[in-house]
Amino acid sequence: MGRMKAAVFHEHGGRDVIQVERVPIPQPAVDEARVKVHACALNWLDVGIRRGPQFGAIPLPLITGVDVSGVIDAVGSAVQGWQIGDAVTYYSLLTCGDCEFCRAGEVTVCPQHRIFGEHMNGGLAEYTVVPARNLIAKPTKLTHAEVAALPVVSMTAWHMLITVARLQLGETVFIPGAGGGVASMGIQIAKRAGAKVIASTSTPDKMAKARQLGADHVVNYKEPDWVEQVIAHTGGRGVDVAQDLVGASTWADSLRTLARNGRLVVCGSHSGKRLDLSIPQIYHRQLKILGSNGGTFDELRACLELAARGELKPVIDRVLPLNEIREGHRILEEHDHFGKVVIQIADGA
Known about the structure:
Layout: E1 3-8, E2 19-24, E3 32-41, H1 44-51, E4 67-75, E5 87-90, E6 93-94, H2 100-103, E7 114-115, E8 127-131, E9 135-137, H3 144-148, H4 151-164, E10 172-175, H5 181-192, E11 196-201, H6 204-213, E12 217-220, H7 226-232, E13 239-244, H8 248-257, E14 258-266, H9 279-284, E15 288-291, H10 297-308, E16 316-321, H11 325-333, E17 340-344
Parallel strand pairs: 10-11, 10-13, 11-12, 13-14, 14-15, 16-17
Antiparallel strand pairs: 1-2, 3-4, 3-8, 3-17, 4-5, 5-9, 6-7
């Protein structure tokens, strides 16, 4: 059956629990394809899963890695429309297909959903297997590293801003933590929708990069009056939408940036899951708090098509080899990046 190199952890904990080991090469089921992985991007999901389960048990040992780009090297007997040699990426969510939410097209809230790299082995390995129905052709104009930098962050930002918050032409959006993957996509998606974008980040270099992506104004959140600066950029009115993926450390300030009838759209809690809120500000100003969870297959496919046309730019901070996977986790945990950290698995990524 053969063996492959993979980043595996057998217990939850610090970065030292990640081991690069040789494990059996997975074999595709009848409805699956096996993908030879060229590149796999890291997400905060990888860090959170490594630290310990937050939303239910996680099977161990586990290979994480959600964002994959590679080439099919084997297919199950029932697979149609795909063949060995096809360059692909894939949609990382597996849903039941039968519940009321799946039938309504709201797959991101399927109670039975599972995620590659969390509930089953993912792509931080030389090979991974995936149901053929989740496959999407790799855009030919993009490298494997560029494609790996797109799936989770692009569809998440699109779902947050376009599908859930319903961002409109001429509105103003605030995007905190501009160096993050979803934020870097959010800036581009919001500009494409015709919105004015105000972003925040922590260093002059990151501020310059946010402007290069299209942000109209960028503030340094380490300055004590940064919220007032955001509001000043709106003429004192406040923003229509705040996109927040950070969690407890930013929620209160994101709410403060909102105009009356403003919307806070949230997806993420890595800085904390609980906080004190001033309830009167929510009803006096008629603020709306909207939850957003991942994205859909069609949203991912649309984002990849936009990237293929040059309308969305993959934002890659750096590319590391698999044996530097712990360094990749450090970069994310210490916020030492702007955009995605991509792990190169095969040559030519």
